[in-house]
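Lecture notes, unit on protein representations.

Consider one protein chain, 126 amino acids long.
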Amino acid sequence: MNRVKFTVEFIFRASPGILYNFLSTPACLTRWFCDEVDINDREFTFFWSGAAETAELIEDIENELLRFHWEEAEDEKEYLEFKLYKSPVTDETVLEVTDYCDEDDLTDQRQLWMSQIERLRQETGG
């Protein structure tokens, strides 16, 4: 099965600092992304319905970027990335999510991110 990279963008009224906190701390991640998370240095273990997945934080620029590599990813080049920046036109915060999936799962993965980000939007108030 072919793997594809995709990117989705979301507009927030919350500041990059607030969003960064929701993307990087256990207390905030469990409010929108997973049931539980354990962080050991640069290793994040996420739990969903009792199943665990581990990712290494491979890039971290405070208030701008978080990039993870999933331990079980078959391709070393695949990653999950959260990029934050201010729109030069509207001054709103843009959250850009980059992820990978099987080609035939692309629509479902986009829908999953849309529902996850909607939860994040409710938690951040914007």
